Amino acid sequence: MADPDRNAALYALSDGYDVAGKGINGRRVAGQSFLQGYFRHADVDQVVSVSDSQKDGAAFASLMQATSGAVQHPLRHVAQHSAAQIAPLGVMFYPAPDFSALAFQRQAFGHSAYGLCGITHTTSTLAVMAGFFHLRTSPYQSWDAVICTSRAVKAACLYNLEHVDDYLSKTLGAGAVRRALPLMPVIPLGLDVASYARDEAARKSLRTRMGWGKKDVVFTTLARLLPYGKFDPAPYFIALQAAQAELGKTRTLHVVMCGIYGDTHSQSVFEECARTLMPDVSFTHLDGADATARAEALSGGDVFSFPIDNIQETFGLAPVEGMAAGLPILASDWDGIRDTVTSDTGILIPTRMISGPASLPEGHGHFLGRLNYGQYGNNLSAMTVLDQSAMRAAILALARDEGLRKRLGQAGLARARALFDWAQIIPAYQDLWAEQNARRRAHAPLPPEALTLSPPPAALFAGYPSLRAPDGGMRVVANAPLPRLIEIYALRRYEKIGSPFEKQSTLERIFTLIHEAGDAGITLPELCHSTGWPPATIERSVMFFLKYDLVRIP
């Protein structure tokens, strides 16, 4: 008989698991994959689900039937208003980080009736940031837990909670916050590694159809194709074009993007940027909703690329999928990706983000509703830099050296099997649930205490980039003529999406001053003096120039 202390009741939130019914996004894909892993690998005697409606309970039962495969467990459903009936289980798993409402509901049964366990996915939405305020002011207990999928995400969660504490201390007096934090273990997302194995038939199908041979090196990506909500393709395309120019006729580079365009705007950005910025590198889009296309993209590629520059990303499951397919990884050194990709499995590109104070317009704008979520992410992406020279060098190294690609790919596959297969991850969940139960039994209930919102986003996500924001003494030199700035700005359609991070006229004025400084360059304080504009405006603009290789740091 399985130990009930190592099991948890699963909250049947359709939006957290149901890809077919609710649509494809990273959170639901990860949630559905978790269920598949749980059904297959959890050492349990039964599955217990909890919901606040019969409809959600029935939907979960159908989802279990569709995803459990050969492993069949009996299912017992508990209504939320009778949540204590999850016993003998002592933990309820909720597929999001804010379980504050459940903590309040638990009071009806007593604080020690059971533990609560949430998990992070995207942490950049206003709802999630507000959720940490609600969580900190809710009657959660010291045995409750929020699983953080990466160290960077844990840092963001801690920042949010400490931001709340700082607010309360300032408004209620020093010492107002005395509560322990919830348990916050770092447990990565998982997948079924075997299901991503390289398919030679799929590889042959794609490469034959495209006419690609041994001299053709294919950089493939699986992702939602949202320039304002996933990654900006333009800097990546600029680096690929530069690498192709250096490779000449020795190698031919190709890009395969397998995913779903979020809208016609996103399609225009990706396809127009590809056509304009990398004319010598082919661009192929495959439908991310098509399983055959996904298999072709993974199996037909030579390198898996993931140039993320958006705070929407938290873990980055896609590079693990690439590793599971035996591909070397080219990715940004960004948030959870640095937990998954190591130097023996791929190459990480250094990233840089503006300082916290310089990002206040985005924080305030998002909170007040002036910026929608797409504008919020788009603006911050515009001021997040992937090191162009490092990206070019990585592309060249991977394109030229088939042996390197093979070594990295083999190491990546071994790492995926050892660390990220659900066979390894589900026992870690069960260890946590057992620890929660042990703590729950060892402590008397704590009295509920009282609890804030939207900090500067670049301070909140300071753990994402690998390099610090530029300091005032940094000198920059123009790397392109003014028309190139105008071209890039137009290609990225910042005005089209609305509420851009800076006006084009502001960028042109600052860029002209940099250009006039010549090879000697100019510092950020000097630009402030010449324009009379605040340091944040200068920093935001210079980060944009660096992002697109319009200026360089000598």
Summarize the main sheet: 6 strands, parallel
Strand arrangement within the widest β-sheet reads 3-2-1-4-5-6
Please estimate the helix content.
40-55%
Give me the Rg, rounded: 24 Å
Mean pLDDT: 91
Keywords:
554 residues; alpha/beta; 24 helices; 17 strands; 48% helix; 13% strand; globular
Account of the 3D structure:
Strand 7 (216-222), helix 9 and strand 8 (252-259) form a beta-alpha-beta unit. Helix 14 (360-368) packs antiparallel against helix 15 (373-382), helix 17 (402-420) runs parallel beside helix 18 (422-442) and helix 23 packs across helix 24. The protein is α/β, with parallel strands linked by helices. The strands form four sheets. A six-stranded parallel beta sheet has the order 3-2-1-4-5-6, with helices on one face. A six-stranded parallel beta sheet has the order 9-8-7-10-11-12, sandwiched between helices. Strands 16-15-17 form a three-stranded antiparallel beta sheet. It is 48% helix and 13% strand. It is globular, with a radius of gyration of 24 Å.
What's this model, at a glance?
The chain has 554 residues and is an alpha/beta fold. It has a 6-stranded parallel β-sheet with strand order 3-2-1-4-5-6, with helices on one face.
